[in-house]
Design a protein that fits this description.
Distance between the termini: 37 Å
Strand order of the largest sheet: 6-5-4-3-2-1-13
Helix content: 25-40%
Number of helices: 10
Number of domains: 1
Structural class: alpha/beta
Largest sheet: 7 strands, mixed
Order of helices and strands: HHHEEEHEHEHEEEEHEHEHHEE
Radius of gyration: 18 Å
C-alpha cells in the first residue's frame, strides 16, 4: 500500500465536502478507498497507520479551532466520532484504532494523540465494551482530568475504568440514555447503551453501537417514543440479525439523515485475507440506497466532518 495513493484520494475527497445529497464523485472516490483498503494485511502497513494518525491530527486541530454556530461531527476509526456543539466536545466510542485481539497492528494512535484528545474532549460516551468501541488508556487520561465518562457498568468492570458513571445511573439535560443489550429477550447478550443527544439547534442524534437485534432495537424505539423525542441524525451500521432492518425502521419512522458506522473494522478480518472488513463503502451505498436517493445520507471517511444543521 502506498501512502501517496491514500493521500491522493483523500485530497480529492476534500474537494468534494460531504453534504446530505447524492454525490457521484464522492461515491467514486470512496469506492477507490475500498480498493486500497481491501488489500490483504493493509491494517499492518506503516503507510495506513501513518495516514490514519495524520487524519486524527487534522481532526484535533479542526476541533480546537472550530467556533461555528452549527454542531459539527467528525469521523474517526470505525465507530468513533467527535461532536462539537458550541463549547462542548463530545466523544462517542472513540478507540485507539485497530487494536485487534489476534495481534498488533500499526493502525493505532500514539500516546501523544490520546493525550491531545483527552485535552479537547469534555464528555466521553461508550456504547459497549468491545475493543473497537473503547480506549482504556484514553479513559485513564480523561479520568485523571476529571472529564465526564459514561458507559455500561459491565464496561467499567471489564476495563477497570476509574471515574466513569454507569449509564444505568446517568442523567443529563442534553442526552437521554438507555441501557440496552446485544441479544434477544431469550438470550441477552453484551450490555449496550443507547444515547440520544439533543443539540443546541434542537436537532437530535442517535447512537447505539453496532449489531442490532429485534428485541433490543425495538426497545430503543420505544424509549424514544416515551421521551417524546425524534431522531434527526443516525450514524448506523446496516447489520442486524433479527426483525426489520434498523435503516428501514428509522427511515419510515423519522425520515432522518444517516451516516456510516462500523465500516472497515479490521478486527473482523482474518490476517492475510483481502477484501472487506465488516462492510465496505460499496455495501453501504447499497444498504442505504433508499434514503441516499432522497438526499438524506452521507458517508464519511476518516478525518472528514459534516455540519448537523
Amino acid at each position: 500500500m502506498k501512502y501517496s495513493d491514500l493521500d491522493t484520494v483523500f485530497k480529492q475527497l476534500q474537494q468534494e465536502p460531504p453534504r446530505f445529497e447524492v454525490s457521484p464523485r464522492r461515491q467514486e472516490l470512496l469506492l477507490k478507498m475500498d480498493s486500497l483498503l481491501c488489500e490483504a494485511d493493509s491494517e499492518i502497513t506503516p503507510e495506513l497507520g501513518e495516514f490514519y494518525r495524520n487524519r486524527v491530527n487534522d481532526i484535533i486541530q479542526e476541533v480546537k479551532s472550530y467556533s461555528g454556530n452549527v454542531p459539527r461531527l467528525w469521523k474517526l476509526y470505525s465507530s468513533g466520532f467527535l461532536l462539537k456543539d458550541k463549547n462542548r466536545t463530545i466523544a462517542i466510542d472513540i478507540n485507539e484504532g485497530c487494536t485487534s485481539g489476534i495481534g498488533r497492528t500499526r493502525l493505532v494512535l500514539y500516546k501523544e494523540q490520546l493525550e491531545a484528545l483527552a485535552e479537547i474532549i469534555d464528555e466521553y460516551y461508550n456504547t459497549h465494551s468491545h475493543i473497537d468501541h473503547i480506549s482504556a488508556p484514553l479513559c485513564d487520561l480523561l479520568g485523571a482530568r476529571g472529564k465526564t465518562m459514561v458507559m455500561p457498568q459491565e464496561g467499567i468492570r471489564r476495563w477497570l475504568i476509574e471515574g466513569a458513571t454507569p449509564v444505568e445511573e446517568f442523567s443529563a439535560p442534553h442526552v437521554k440514555s438507555f441501557l440496552n443489550y446485544q441479544g434477544t429477550d431469550e438470550k441477552k447478550g453484551l450490555d449496550c447503551a443507547m444515547y440520544l443527544f439533543t443539540l443546541s439547534n434542537g436537532k437530535t442524534i442517535f447512537f447505539r453501537g453496532d449489531i442490532y437485534h429485534r428485541d433490543g432495537f425495538n426497545a430503543c424505539m420505544e424509549h424514544i417514543d416515551l421521551w417524546q423525542k425524534k431522531v434527526d441524525y443516525a450514524p448506523l451500521t446496516p447489520y442486524y440479525t433479527s426483525g426489520d432492518a434498523p435503516i428501514a425502521i428509522l427511515n419510515e419512522k423519522f425520515s432522518c439523515r444517516f451516516l456510516n458506522c462500523h465500516e472497515w473494522e479490521f478486527t473482523h478480518r482474518k490476517p492475510g485475507v483481502k477484501g472487506p472488513a465488516t462492510q465496505c463503502f460499496e455495501e453501504l451505498y447499497g444498504a442505504f440506497a433508499v434514503p441516499y436517493q432522497d438526499n438524506r445520507v452521507q458517508f464519511l471517511f476518516w478525518g472528514e466532518s459534516i455540519e448537523l444543521d
